[in-house]
Amino acid sequence: MNTPLKWVGSKTRIMEILKQHLPAGRRLVEPFAGSCAVLLHTDYEEYLIGDVNPHLINFYQQVKDNPEELIGLTAPWFTFQDLESYYYSLREFLNTNLLPPLKQAAIFLFLNRHCYGGVCRYNLKGEFNTPYGHYKKTYFPENEIRELSRRLARATLICGDFSTTLGYAHRGDVVYCDPPYIPASPTADFTGYHTDKFGAEQHRRLVTALVDLSESRIPVVLSNSDTPVTRELLRGKFKIQTLSAPRSIGNRKKAASTADEIIAVRNLSVWRSVVEVNAKFANGEPF
């Protein structure tokens, strides 16, 4: 199942690999909602989904609560003749921040499906500023909205930074983080997907928070780009696996490529259990 939103770095195409690293638990906690691909392709009893982007969280709230109204409002827009002109008009409306929640979600969906490469980008004023994508044809994700609505029935949504969402994690949860990636090069910086860039200090804070959660026996899994900076940040703290993930920035097939990523896992509960069993075995104790 594809996601309703196009999303740079969506995990849809690597889910079979990622699921091998997500342990069992009652609830999955995700502080970076992204495309909600992980929610769509896993089967936890509950989900706690957060993101700092209010447009994104409002969209998911409307998908959860009002899927048919959202479909009915948005679908006709995809049939208009002068889509480029309509795109920029709706983008201006979105940036007024004066829209009722359902209409804001409909506009956000329209912009996402028609913007360049599905890139969700904001300027320092908090204005969505991704240009029009010039597609020959755009797809309206009606079935995907309905399926995501069914899955979101298990989810609680939070608008806030990662520390807010992680503050609700407790024993029995599994935490998965897919933050804006550390750039592989100076020209590959997509960390400004909302007003405040997710830079080096935020990555350090996130790793510290995840280590602290692991110390409380909450397993944590982290995705990021495979760069020397990333590896230095995680060295000695996480078990790392590398993979090549598909990427597609732009509206032409030739723009598709792959990028090296890591999946980093820290499951201290399992690790300590193994250590304790080995220690008892070495001492001749029953276990």
Based on secondary structure, the structural category is: alpha/beta
The name CATH uses for the topology is Rossmann fold
- End-to-end separation in angstroms reads 44 Å
Poorly predicted runs of 5 or more residues: 250-255, 271-281
Strand order of the largest sheet: 3-2-1-4-5-7-6
CATH-level-4 superfamily name: Vaccinia Virus protein VP39
What can you tell me about this protein's structure?
The protein has 287 residues and is α/β, with parallel strands linked by helices. The protein has one domain (12-282): 3-Layer(aba) Sandwich (Rossmann fold), CATH 3.40.50. Helix content is 38%, strand content 16%. The chain is built from 11 helices and 7 strands. The protein has helices at residues 15-19, 37-41, 54-65, 67-74, 83-94, 101-114, 142-152, 162-166, 200-215, 228-234, 268-282; strands at 27-30, 46-51, 155-159, 173-177, 220-225, 239-248, 256-266. β4 (173-177), α9 (200-215) and β5 form a beta-alpha-beta unit. The longest helix has 16 residues, at 200-215. The N and C termini lie far apart (44 Å). The relative contact order is 0.16. The model is unreliable at 250-255 and 271-281 (pLDDT under 50).
Defining traits:
38% helix, alpha/beta, Rossmann fold
